[in-house]
Design goal:
Layout lengths: L1 E5 L4 E6 L10 H12 L6 E6 L3 E3 L4 H5 L7 H11 L3 E6 L2 E3 L3 H5 L3 E4 L4 E3 L2 H4 L5 H11 L1 H8 L5 E2 H7 L4 E2 L5 H14 L2 H12 L1
Parallel strand pairs: 2-3, 3-5, 4-6, 5-7, 6-8, 7-10
Antiparallel strand pairs: 1-2, 8-9
Length: 204
């Protein structure tokens, strides 16, 4: 349910592939992604995307009821993504909901189709957001807009998210992956040490 491929340039593509369930995430999917990321030592860029009309609905409902909603796997996944020392693009093919926000927030850039919405209904569901998710969201959009999403439970349109700085570019669906590949092309062509140093400088 996680398709992955690394090409000869070092571009690692991860694709959520459970479209019949809106790419809802199971413990097995999270664990698979963590393992892929922890062994991706040769990756020079990463694109994270999904199959179908939704990027991810967040936790699978049955798995959430069985404990996934409070699992440490979410924080392990976002940590593994953030620790990967290469340019990481979340190419959001549709709505981003719940715990799946952590994956996109751990990437360096987020691009999205015009119909995508951002939704993280922890207040309504009675769960706490993952600590790193709230921290990364606040760093991008500030505390008030983080509260708009997490505390007021608002669904944010792609246009609003772009205005907030939560999404960096809105892209037509048929151009989404080409745009993601164009964004990582300079990093793939650069010396790895130079690419990593530039990313560190931007994060400092």
């Amino acid at each position: 349910m996680i398709d992955h491929h690394q090409d000869s340039r070092g571009l690692l593509t991860l694709r959520l592939n459970r479209p019949e369930k809106a790419n809802a995430l199971t413990p097995e999917m999270l664990a698979q992604m963590i393992e892929i990321l922890r062994t991706a030592t040769e990756a020079r860029a990463l694109i994270l995307t999904g199959t179908g009309k939704v990027f991810s609905a967040g936790a699978d409902l049955d798995a959430a009821k069985a404990g996934l909603a409070t699992s440490p796997l979410w924080e392990e996944l976002s940590g593994a993504l953030a620790a990967l020392p290469c340019l990481k693009i979340a190419a959001l093919n549709g709505t981003l909901a719940g715990g799946a926000n952590g994956m996109a927030l751990a990437c360096d850039l987020r691009i999205a189709v015009p119909t995508a919405k951002v939704f993280y209904p922890v207040m309504q569901l009675g769960y706490l957001p993952q600590p790193s998710d709230a921290m990364r969201m606040r760093a991008l959009v500030g505390p008030a807009r983080t509260k708009l999403i997490l505390a007021a439970g608002q669904k944010i349109t792609a246009e609003e998210a772009y205005g907030f700085g939560l999404i960096d570019r809105i892209v037509a669906p048929e151009e989404l992956m080409a745009e993601a590949e164009a964004l990582v092309a300079p990093a793939l062509a650069a010396e790895p040490d130079v690419a990593q140093a530039i990313l560190r400088a931007a994060d400092a």
